[in-house]
Write a structure and sequence with these properties.
The chain is α/β, with parallel strands linked by helices and about 270 residues long. It contains 8 helices and 15 strands. It is about 30% helix and about 25% strand.
């Protein structure tokens, strides 16, 4: 089925542990490739945690600080850089469906364009930078990462709903990566839904996103019993971020350092 004909399943946001969220994306990705699950857009609130991309070195993080803040650490099977998740202070989404032969640039053009349409529909003057980052009035409000393999895409992203503390963001990273100048830059770089449009509720944002991402072709759904069983099994795997020996110095998604950014493709 082409993306133009796809009817998407929408799963509305819940607060869930990091390993369960990553396992959910992985299970749906695999099952879509096998024709066992429909193309799906899943919305999440992560319990306080830090996610890193598959290639990223665990040494990019300050593990002691992560523990002090009570943050779980999870490695995803996709690309991207370290992301701090803070429950309902942000909203995450995963778009999982057939790739139809699109490459990573084409996928970002399609779905990031639709995300921008959703945010603009709410009256927020958002712009896209570097294919997959979203800015409002020159400040970053959202970032995305992408995985393409088995004929399936999983594009996942985060939108800040409330301000995130820049000091906390840099404290959980390896102190060798960032200094006072970076902290000053980060303070001036971030924004959130509450800051740019305090009258807009998270539910309004989710509604606009599901409408635009799917071009109106969607139906509300939930995980099947078979999916839930597979997710339980996969969650155990993702409890340990060392399930893959990442060695790429990538830094924080909001203030990158290290190797050139780019998605993990075909692995």
């Amino acid at each position: 089925m082409s993306l133009e004909q796809t009817v998407w399943r929408i799963i509305t946001p819940e607060v869930k542990p990091a390993a369960e969220i990553v396992a959910t994306d992985d299970v749906i990705h695999r099952r879509v490739s096998e024709g066992k699950s429909p193309p799906t857009v899943v919305f999440y609130h992560w319990k306080p945690s830090v996610s890193i991309g598959k290639p990223q070195a665990i040494s990019d993080l300050n593990l002691d600080a992560c523990r002090e803040y009570g943050l779980d650490i999870v490695r995803t099977p996709g690309g991207g850089r370290a992301v701090l998740h803070l429950g309902t202070k942000d909203i995450s989404y995963s778009v999982i469906g057939p790739s139809n032969g699109l490459n990573h640039v084409q996928v970002y053009e399609r779905f990031c364009g639709r995300i921008a349409e959703a945010i603009q529909y709410l009256g927020i003057p958002v712009t896209i930078d570097n294919k997959n980052d979203f800015y409002v009035n020159g400040r970053k409000i959202s970032g995305n990462a992408l995985r393409i393999n088995e004929g399936v895409i999983t594009q996942h992203g985060i939108i800040l709903c409330e301000p995130h503390d820049p000091e906390m963001m840099l404290a959980i990273m390896n102190p060798a990566l960032y200094g006072k100048q970076d902290l000053s830059e980060l303070r001036g770089r971030l924004t959130s839904l509450k800051e740019v449009a305090p009258h807009i509720a998270i539910g309004d944002l989710v509604g606009a996103l599901q409408e635009k991402l799917t071009e109106g072709r969607y139906q509300a759904g939930k995980l099947t019993a078979e999916e839930q069983r597979e997710i339980v099994a996969e969650t155990a795997r993702y409890q340990d971020p060392n399930w893959f020996p990442g060695n790429s110095i990538r830094g924080l998604c909001w203030l990158s350092k290290g190797e050139e950014r780019g998605s993990l493709r075909g692995n």
